[in-house]
Amino acid sequence: MNADHAKDRETLCLRGGHVLTFDDDDSVFEEGEVWIEDGVITAVGPVGAAPPPSAAPGARHIEAKGRIVMPGLINGHAHSYGALLKGTVDVKPLDIFMLHVIAANADRSAREVEVSALVDCISMFRTGTTAVIDHFSHRPATTSEALGAVMAAYGEAGMRAMVAPMFSDLPYLETVPLDAAALPAKVREAYAKQGRPALAPYFQVIEEGLEMATQYDGLVNVLLGVDGPQRCSPELLEMTADFQGRHGIGLHTHMLEAKTQAVMADEVGFVRRLLELGVINDKSSFAHFIWCTDDDIAAAREAGVTIIHVPGSNLMVGSGICPVLKLRRAGLAVAVGTDGANCSAPNMFEKLRLACLLARVTEPEFEDWLGARDTLKMGLSGGARAFGRSGGGTSGDIGVLQPGARADLVVLDPGSHLHRPLGDVWNHLLYYESGAGTEAVVVDGRVVMEEGRLLTIDEEAVLAEAEEIVARQRQGAAATGPGIAAQYPAFHDMIVATLKTAGGPARFAKLD
Length: 512
Fold this sequence. Notes:
By secondary structure, the chain is of the alpha/beta class. It is 36% helix and 18% strand. It has helices spanning 94-104, 110-126, 144-157, 185-192, 200-213, 234-247, 259-262, 270-277, 294-303, 311-316, 324-329, 348-359, 372-386, 425-431, 459-477, 481-500; strands at residues 12-20, 28-37, 40-46, 60-63, 68-71, 73-78, 129-134, 160-163, 166-167, 220-222, 225-226, 251-255, 284-288, 306-309, 333-336, 409-412, 438-443, 446-450, 453-454. The longest helix has 20 residues, at 481-500.
């Protein structure tokens, strides 16, 4: 939504629904109403009890009787490029997955970038997500045109978004524990010709992104998105710290996603090194954070970092199990993300459920396990913190329905056979809801979906265009196959040997 679209905000009243506020007291109104004016929630309470705003006589009423009204879900880690790569991942550990991604996500036009993000928006809106951190990847390098295209997609769709353009400067072979001699000579020669990218252009693009963000009325903004630290030179990290100091923006990065990354750390460790360099602070978020040591956790806590748990992707590429319960005991905020749509659907209800259940097979003390309400609230409060808009009731908050918060909310129909007869509402949301019950979506006071119909995206046209793009991409994909196949044996042996190596934290499930 750019400034011109602010007129789409209306004075709204959602009336009669089962309102779950997710405020500090977990207030619930079984027949409640929510008043919204100029994108902000002005009142929440039982029907008729909440004072309406001054503009109430001209308000638009949305009937929510028999429905569940709750804050929109927050996707803490996604890659919009993956929307055009659905169904391309099966048995591919992360490091081999990366070979395919590097080849497939290259040389996209601005329109292809925009369409890919819109496809993700369709899936997220239809499953109750209203905000996303897009760890945006555009190869061979992020351009202002590409960044502008993805921001425009979110703005027009009405999705609240933080776009964090990915960047790294070390050759891929230097970032994994692989003996280059194990690769065919032609492959080594191809890597040797790649060289290192210049660093200054990345930060220039971020500068331009910050300027572009001013037109989106606070809905779409930019984060630094440098890739995992094992892929970044000291010079890049120092420039990142300097940029943060001058602009005060946050950083979103992969961190310790796979054991093959963890073994690349020196005795200081990636997290503490970033802390010493001044790269991370309470505006930073780490995606994955699976192979973290006790000192990594301590350094992250010292910095005030938010951890983004990505359970579906972690399992899809066999990276391991994030120690969520341990992180929470250490005082770290935890959000939940979906990763790219090539690593399963961008459905936050599904990922929250997986986060909850997966944690129950990591520790025997069941009183410490996450419950349904805890998990939902973790995802909302942690997601808001990763956005730099954590709770507390002040204007600008997301992930909560209370006066002063931004009006990001969803209306769910619990009338399907999966919910009837309805028991505890918290349990139903986490264990039974698939996102298919999403009936209406409001983002920043703008109705983007009503009665199951998307209002800001021509859904069929976008999906048809996406299918045409994918058909064209498949014609060129065959050319990359032999190059990846030539690297496969060396990468296979490296991954298996690393996972069999003793030492470090245990992040795989083992059955006796």
